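pinging the channel bc i need a second pair of eyes. not urgent but kinda urgent?? the chain im working w is below, pasted from the shared doc
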Amino acid sequence: MVRGIGRGGRGIPGRGGMGRPPFNRPRVLMLRPPFDLLLAEPAFPRCKPAPDDSVLTQALLKRHTELCPSPTDQAAVLSLVTKLQTVLDNIVVAPGEFAACQLEEVRQVGSYKKGTMMAGKNVADIVVIMKTLPTKEAVEGLSNKVNEEVNKLMKAEGSGAVVSACHERGFTVTGTSAAVRVLITTLHQNLRKIEPDVHLDYKVISSHLAAIRHSRWFEENAHHSSSKVLIRLLRDMCSRHSGLVPLTPWMIDLLAHHCIMNNPQRQALPINVAFRRALSLMAGGLFLPGCAGLPDPCEAAHSRAHTALDLAAQDLAAATAQTLLRVVARGGHLYVLGLQPFEGGKDISLEITVWDGVVVSPLAPAYNDSPEPMDTDDKDSV
């Protein structure tokens, strides 16, 4: 008998011996952050002072001024939102003879609530939480009630009438110069009772609950004015370049807050530095598979915001950001920001351009949706 077998010897694996390791050991997914020059600056000190970036700063501020809504538009939206809020609060407190549904709470969400509303988009969002289940009949009844009550207030002021129209998310109240989307959801404990044929879509009402969490987080953490400036600039840039269109407003909010505030000093960065940082992080793979990305503070632990994008959209966003970053580096920021239109109104991220003798061409997609054919040893006989 050989001593040691079964007690730390060489025979039985897994008990201190020298056998083969078990094959059922779970693999740990290591998420790696993209290279961030701002955070890595202590390891890569500058050899010369930073170049003068005043031209880019002026361009960014000029574009932001164009993107801000006018005082007239803001007043129009505020007036309609106030009337809607008053009517809905009255239904919550004293519904009277209204029996189509029971309301629990009314919350303002979206860009109007966050202070990032864009020029030309006079639309605000309000989430209505129902105590009862959100049936399509209940939404239609609430829409008619709100339309009737708001028109009474408008008539008392001598203003124009509003029109209410239902859709898959709730209903929209539209006035002469502004509109308010009323988004319907229900209490969290009612979600498991949702039936697809009777009630609103489960994903839709869940997203409305998430919108409340997003607005609350933004109000507590991302209220800095520089963050709001960068959000407007990034939203405008994403709307004009097709590769960045799939990015959601929530992803842009998190990206802007990260680029402005996530630094060793925990102080707001200048807008030119934050803008370059946002493009650099996206180009470096912030929204690619296997990257740590941006943790979603309003969801469960280890949740990443960019996982809402499919693989093709993640690849296209990174490629587009790389192209735009090279254009900005060669002095083409006016075209990227939209201050100067590209020839023929084309998307500059999709065209081959030349800047001071440097050719910038869009990158080919790295993700291929079609699976590669498997190489087998079985060949068809000739």
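so Residues 224-365 form a domain with the Poly(a)-polymerase, middle domain fold (CATH 1.10.1410.40). and The beta strands are 103-109, 123-130, 163-167, 170-174, 179-186, 353-355, 358-360. — does that match what u expected or am i reading it wrong
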